[in-house]
Amino acid sequence: MTVLWEGSGWEPLGPSSGRRRLPVWDCTAGLVVGEHGALLVDAGSSLGEGARLRAQTRRLLAPLGGDRRVTHLALTHPHFDHVLGAAAFAGAEVFGAAGVDAVLLRGRDELVADAVRHGLDPEAAAEAADVLVRPRHHVSGERTLDLGGVQVLLADVGPGHTAHDLVVLVPGDPEVVFCGDLVEESGEPQAGPDAVPSHWPAALDRLLELGGEDARYVPGHGAVVDAEFVRSQRAELAARFGVS
Prior knowledge:
Blueprint: E1 11-14, E2 17-21, E3 28-33, E4 38-41, H1 47-61, E5 72-74, H2 80-83, E6 93-97, H3 100-106, H4 108-117, H5 122-130, E7 137-139, E8 142-146, E9 151-156, E10 166-170, E11 176-184, H6 200-211, E12 216-221, H7 227-241
Parallel strand pairs: 4-5, 5-6, 6-7, 11-12
Antiparallel strand pairs: 1-2, 2-3, 3-4, 8-9, 9-10, 10-11
Helix pairs in contact: 4-5, 6-7
């Protein structure tokens, strides 16, 4: 099974996975394709962006035959640029770190306010928050998804960037790790009021333990990095927050 990533605007990462860097906030959306399922990692910043991702993924999957679509959606953490497009993927099974659904439920107003502070149109932010699809499947520890020939590992490695950080590991040569905003390449990692700085370095230790030395690490924002970059960012965060 081969997905033709080239020429699609998506960056190939491994035999079964690729990603797209979304405009404005340079947020990563990932796609993992199996024989009978496809997993999207994060859904974009608005219903419009989610709808564009849906159309793009349908085009990518169409050559594989049948009515191929995104069947699973993993939300790496509860920030607007990663979750507000989720409602565009009706019917998908939605996964998140344990507890993230409660954050999204009670934090609707803050989610909208944060989106507007970062430049999203207020009506678009409110509309997306009103219909936001929250995770029904809650990952505590680790959970494996079988997409058909591709066994994807979802791991709750946080807290760190937020109290609810989920990462996605895709087997292959190389292994691919979608890190969410636990790792950022295009700028200094952002630590907002919901960050847990005292645990962030430990979350990166767990990330490295799961991914290993030769994995490709896909930040929530920026270019794909290696294990040495993650270790360096871990050291910078530990120094910045005064933790070991």
